[in-house]
Structures are given as C-alpha cells and as structure tokens.
Amino acid sequence: MVSAVGTLVVSYAMDWSLLRLTIVLMDRKPRRWRLGLGAVVGTLPTLWVLLQQNLYAVPWELLILWPLGMLWLAVPRFPWRLWARAYLIFAGVTVLAGGIALVILTWLGQWLPGIPHWLLLGLSVPAVLWGMGHLIPRPRMRQYLGQAQKGEVSVTLNGSTLTLPCLWDSGNQMRDPVLRRPVIVMEISQAIEWLPPEVLAWVTACASGRQDPVPSKWQGRLGTVFYQSIGGTGILPVVALEEAKGQFQGRWYRLQPVALAFTPQSVSSDHSYRALVSPDCIITINQEGVGA
Q: Which among 264, 262, 266 is positioned nearest to 186, based on CA atoms?
C-alpha cells in the first residue's frame, strides 16, 4: 500500500513539475490550480497500471498523446500554432527528469540508504525542475523559441507625445554614457514631424556623420551613444526624454527615465514595429517585476 501511494505521489509531483517547467519555457504564466488539475490527469495512467498490476496496461499510443490533454488543462488558451512546440518541450524535459532521477538514485541513494526511493525522487527531482524553471533566463529563452514580444511605446519630448509599435528587445543593452539610462532605438523617419526643428536638424546631421554643435536650448539633453550589432558598430544621436511609457503583455508601464536614440535604418524588415525597447526599461528602472 505504501509503495502504491508513494508511486502516485511521485507521479503527481513529477507531472506537476514537468508541466510547470514546460509552461515557463513557453513563456506563459503557470497557475497552480491548473497545474494541479493537469498533474492529476497525468497520474491516471499510473493509477491504471497499479490497479491492473500490469506495466503495459496502458497502450503506448495513449501514453504518447496523454501529455496533450495535460497541457490543455494546464494552459487552456494555448495558441494552436505552439502546441507542437509545447509537446516537444514537455517530452524533452521528461527525458531530462528521467536522467536526473537516475543520477539521484545512483549517487544519493548510496549516501541515504534509509530513505525510500519513492520519497527521495518525489522530493529531489521536482525541486531540481522547479529550480531550473526559476533560474532560466526568460529573455534568451523567448529568443530561442522565436517568441518576440511586440507592443507599443509612447515617448514625450518638449510636451509632444509620439506613440509607435515596438519590439521588446532583450538584446538592446545600450545605455546613455552619462546617466546610464536604458536607450530606446527609433527610426528617424518616424520622428520627422514630432521632433522640434532644431533637434531634428542636429539629429539628422549627427546621423549623417557631421559634428554640428548642440543647440544651446538643448545643452545637456543631446548626445551620442555607441552601439554594436551583428551588422557592425557606430554612433547614434540620443536625446533625454521627459517621459516614456511602454505596453508590455497588454499592460502599460512607465519607462522613465530613458533616452531615445535615432537610427536612419529600418529596425524591422517587415515594418511591423518602428522602435526597439529593452525590457530593462521596466525591470531596472521601475522594479515592476516583469521582463521579456
């Protein structure tokens, strides 16, 4: 009886941890009650095997498709185009959990002979999986999965506000060299009618390689920032903003204080966004606890 209950407990803990890690890797917010529901469904094949006392009581075809039902319960609004990716990630972390369990039984089992194997696995493997989900760098993982976060950015200069579609780009690590503020990169073509004439003239000259003097009214607010990308290196004109807001995952956040850099090139090949905004504008400055 203890062995059967322990097996079910380990199965539930494993399924809960695997679902959570999969959802985190897919950049979705896991909900505990849905994770619990999916994990309960995940224990049903184990329960059937125990009742039948037959390791092969559940057809292998059903076992292969079973994680899809677990994921559907854990994340009901998952986009259909991501189901295959989620399934492959779940399968991958399942194999990883099996390797972790083997290492634990091989090494810790010798050092802790008094602890039942089911209890050892039920405590250690989920803890390792939870730690992995907690420590994984989500910005990089989103880039690997091709899940670029798009939104909007609203910038204010000299009392005038401009709102443009943007990409939350974790690769944008530029900082204002003086104040160390995060830098938003915007296409100059989108700011021609928005910038004050004297600022536009200075920005255009700087972008073309000329070193025109900074207008006296804008001393201390105009400058340059060095950038390095796959395409090369260079210098962009930059201006300190009065205020900035960004729409990230459906919510608007204040990004102040930030600086705005201008590039003569298009930042998007399909023109679906016109500015690059670092998630650090939210994380570092306002401590909102969110990130891309």
A: 262
